Amino acid sequence: MKWVQLTNMDELETIAHTSNHVIIFKHSIRCAVSNMAKKRFELESTLIPDHVQVYLLDLIKYREISNEIAQKWQVKHESPQVLLISGNQCLYHESHNDIEVAKIVINLPN
């Protein structure tokens, strides 16, 4: 799995207008829980189909992007947090120690 760094608002519009499924992982580099969740996510990432792009958002640098994600996809901001996005819909989201790649993949349409 290769992380795509989410660093500007324009990328959110691209995500919202794509027909592909996208995962956004919101991560705080200062948080031990977030670091553990990210490490576990990376270990489980082999379950993610190759066609699903995975974005990483650094919440310390880009909090305004996180706020826009919460508004755009109507999901309360949490950290760490993972979202499965399809266009303008958030199909699944989870936070903290409940983040598991298997749960995300189950929510991908066949």
Please characterize this protein's 3D structure.
With 110 residues, the protein is an alpha/beta fold. The protein has a single domain (3-106), classed as 3-Layer(aba) Sandwich (Glutaredoxin). The chain has four helices and five strands. The protein has a five-stranded mixed sheet, sandwiched between helices. β4 and β5 (89-95) form a beta hairpin. The longest helix is centred in the middle third of the chain and has 13 residues, at 32-44. The radius of gyration is 13 Å and the shape is globular. It starts with a strand and ends with a helix.
In total, the number of strands is 5
Strand arrangement within the widest β-sheet reads 1-3-2-4-5
Ends distance: 20 Å
| Helix share bin | 25-40%
Secondary-structure element order, N to C: EHEHEHEEH
Parts with pLDDT < 50 across at least 5 consecutive residues: none
Overall pLDDT score: 95
Task: Report Rg.
Answer: 13 Å
Shape: globular
CATH architecture assignment name: 3-Layer(aba) Sandwich
Strand fraction equals: 25-35%
CATH class: Alpha Beta
Total number of distinct structural domains: 1
Specify the structural class: alpha/beta
CATH T-level fold name: Glutaredoxin
Give the helix tally.
4
Going by CATH, what is the homologous superfamily?
Glutaredoxin
Largest β-sheet summary: 5 strands, mixed
Distinctive features:
110 residues, alpha/beta, Glutaredoxin
Summarize the structure.
The protein is an alpha/beta fold. 34% of the residues lie in helices and 26% in strands.
